Backbone:
């Protein structure tokens, strides 16, 4: 399997929300970076030409310059059941569009540096690819 970075997008006005104890609360404001990856696997077929299987996912990196609205420590993070990010990106026509990345799963949370999340939401991935990559956008 080969992993390839397709595109990096920089967002503005990021708001990281968490769901804890049934309540959705704003945890921090941030400037997220979105990386879109493609995994390519060649599948060999006996007596025929192999074929390719592609799978894409989005990696969201939130840097250490977050402005927290509350304390984020191991005890609090242990109560979080869901992460969600809302952020703006400027389209090619100059208009800002708000994108919501819901059902994020954390890959690594370093309380002193970066927080990294991923999503495999294919509808969202297709939208981002169509709006900002396929047309040569940002």
Residues:
């Amino acid at each position: 399997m080969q992993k390839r970075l397709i595109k990096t997008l920089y967002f503005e006005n990021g708001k990281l929300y968490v769901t804890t104890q049934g309540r959705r609360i704003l945890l921090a404001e941030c400037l997220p970076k979105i990386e879109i990856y493609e995994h390519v696997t060649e599948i060999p077929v006996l007596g025929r030409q192999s074929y390719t299987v592609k799978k894409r996912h989005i990696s969201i990196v939130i840097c250490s310059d977050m402005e927290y609205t509350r304390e984020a420590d191991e005890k609090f993070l242990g109560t979080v059941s869901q992460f969600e990010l809302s952020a703006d990106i400027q389209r090619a026509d100059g208009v800002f569009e708000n994108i919501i990345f819901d059902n994020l799963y954390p890959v690594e949370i370093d309380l002193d540096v970066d927080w990294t999340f991923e999503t495999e939401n294919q509808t969202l991935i297709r939208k981002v690819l169509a709006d900002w990559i396929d047309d040569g956008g940002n």
User: Anything to note?
Assistant: Helices lie at 74-77, 122-132.
